[in-house]
């Protein structure tokens, strides 16, 4: 695929280019879009970001679970607030590392578009039902949303995002040696160089997700009183920040203590990534973005001590929060809702809305399974619960 600038790769402000590192993606060298489009005053990734924000899939993240189902309280994070927080961290990292902030932000905003309702419980339910048909993976579903399922434009399906944004969505967690069926299928039509790393901007978005996920789940867990301050005070990094806040602000209110502790942990993680990335980039000495892609390891990463501390936090959250009986009860019920929705609609596609029913074809077929899976994956928590009631309660009109 040509590296020559396409029609929509208009050069940005000269000062913005000067601020970028040589290994940052260069909007003048974008590999373009599957369907060429006329030039625009924005950079390719500003344009991608704007398209992502205007999608129905992005709006629906407001009512998709992060950990707590939507009706448990307005304060807890959803997929939408999580995505915005990831975007903020990604922009901060990109700016300090002299990368393209707009590409990092676009990837952060799009990374969860493929998540089904009910968080990981919903994903596990769909994956189990789809196992005979290739399984379900939210990363692949995110790519499918932006390349097929969003129907907003007259000339093409999806959003027709730039190659660099699609590459970052497909492999922000590293090279794909064994891609999912959909990603492999898409790659045959529009090659994304799956065997290499993604850009530094995509790596930033992936690590920003890790930083936001763990810290904000700690915050929500304490506020939900599933975790206690004494629990988190024993964690590496978190405990140090907790004790620093108490020493600096004796008598601080509980809510402010939680917020200040989490803020300091996020800042420490960001600084660690900046320092470690600086060391790795200096050792690699890349001349352009393709040198980053061809590297033997990611250039955006935690240092070893920080990675170990982060893993301890992750394991703590898994055992003490994600497997807490209150969360388990809700997740098990949610999983059954997703499974039953799939079974009913796969066996009876005539119950699907008209546009979905036309695509589903014969009941029980692989095509029907994939269409039903796409339909359920696009639901919000509350829509899935309402659809479950409509399909199972004879007293509720269809």
TrEMBL record:
<comment type="similarity">
    <text>Belongs to the dGTPase family. Type 2 subfamily.</text>
</comment>
<feature type="compositionally biased region" description="Basic and acidic residues">
    <location>
        <begin position="34"/>
        <end position="46"/>
    </location>
</feature>
<dbReference type="InterPro" id="IPR023023">
    <property type="entry name" value="dNTPase_2"/>
</dbReference>
<dbReference type="InterPro" id="IPR026875">
    <property type="entry name" value="PHydrolase_assoc_dom"/>
</dbReference>
<feature type="compositionally biased region" description="Basic and acidic residues">
    <location>
        <begin position="1"/>
        <end position="18"/>
    </location>
</feature>
<dbReference type="InterPro" id="IPR006261">
    <property type="entry name" value="dGTPase"/>
</dbReference>
<dbReference type="Pfam" id="PF13286">
    <property type="entry name" value="HD_assoc"/>
</dbReference>
<keyword id="KW-0378">Hydrolase</keyword>
<dbReference type="GO" id="GO:0006203">
    <property type="term" value="P:dGTP catabolic process"/>
</dbReference>
<dbReference type="InterPro" id="IPR006674">
    <property type="entry name" value="HD_domain"/>
</dbReference>
<dbReference type="GO" id="GO:0008832">
    <property type="term" value="F:dGTPase activity"/>
</dbReference>
<feature type="region of interest" description="Disordered">
    <location>
        <begin position="1"/>
        <end position="46"/>
    </location>
</feature>
<dbReference type="InterPro" id="IPR003607">
    <property type="entry name" value="HD/PDEase_dom"/>
</dbReference>
<dbReference type="Pfam" id="PF01966">
    <property type="entry name" value="HD"/>
</dbReference>
<dbReference type="InterPro" id="IPR050135">
    <property type="entry name" value="dGTPase-like"/>
</dbReference>
<feature type="domain" description="HD">
    <location>
        <begin position="79"/>
        <end position="214"/>
    </location>
</feature>
<protein>
    <recommendedName>
        <fullName>Deoxyguanosinetriphosphate triphosphohydrolase-like protein</fullName>
    </recommendedName>
</protein>
């Amino acid at each position: 695929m040509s590296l020559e600038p396409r029609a929509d790769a208009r050069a940005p402000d000269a000062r913005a280019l000067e601020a970028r590192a040589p290994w940052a993606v260069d909007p003048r060298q974008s590999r373009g879009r599957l369907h060429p489009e006329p030039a625009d005053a924005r950079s390719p990734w500003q344009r991608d970001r704007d398209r992502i924000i205007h999608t129905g899939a992005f709006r629906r993240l407001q009512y998709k679970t992060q950990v707590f189902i939507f009706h448990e309280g307005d304060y807890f994070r959803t997929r939408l607030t999580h995505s915005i927080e990831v975007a903020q961290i990604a922009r901060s990292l990109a700016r300090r590392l002299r990368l393209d902030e707009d590409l990092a932000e676009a990837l952060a905003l799009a990374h969860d578009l493929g998540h089904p309702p009910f968080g990981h419980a919903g994903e596990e339910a769909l994956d189990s039902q789809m196992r005979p048909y290739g399984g379900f993976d939210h990363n692949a579903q995110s790519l499918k949303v932006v390349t097929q399922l969003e129907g907003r434009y007259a000339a093409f399906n999806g959003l027709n995002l730039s190659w660099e944004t699609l590459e970052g969505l497909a492999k922000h967690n590293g090279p794909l040696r064994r891609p999912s069926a959909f990603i492999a299928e898409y790659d045959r039509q529009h090659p994304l160089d799956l065997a290499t790393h993604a850009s530094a901007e995509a790596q930033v978005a992936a690590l920003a997700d890790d930083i936001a996920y763990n810290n904000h789940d700690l915050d929500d867990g304490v506020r939900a009183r599933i975790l206690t301050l004494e629990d988190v005070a024993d964690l590496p990094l978190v405990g140090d920040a907790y004790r620093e806040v108490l020493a600096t602000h004796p008598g601080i209110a509980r809510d402010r203590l939680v917020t200040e502790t989490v803020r300091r942990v996020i800042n420490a993680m960001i600084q660690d990534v900046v320092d470690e990335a600086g060391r790795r980039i200096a050792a690699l000495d890349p001349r352009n973005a393709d040198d980053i892609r061809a590297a033997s390891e990611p250039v955006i990463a935690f240092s070893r001590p920080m990675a170990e501390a982060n893993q301890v936090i992750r394991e703590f959250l898994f055992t003490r929060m994600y497997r807490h009986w209150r969360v388990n009860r809700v997740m098990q019920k949610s999983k059954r809702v997703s499974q039953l929705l799939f079974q009913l609609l796969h066996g009876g596609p005539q119950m699907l809305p008209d546009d979905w029913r036309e695509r589903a074809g014969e009941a029980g077929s692989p095509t029907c399974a994939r269409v039903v899976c796409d339909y359920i994956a696009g639901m919000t928590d509350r829509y899935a619960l309402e659809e479950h009631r409509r399909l199972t309660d004879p007293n509720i009109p269809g």
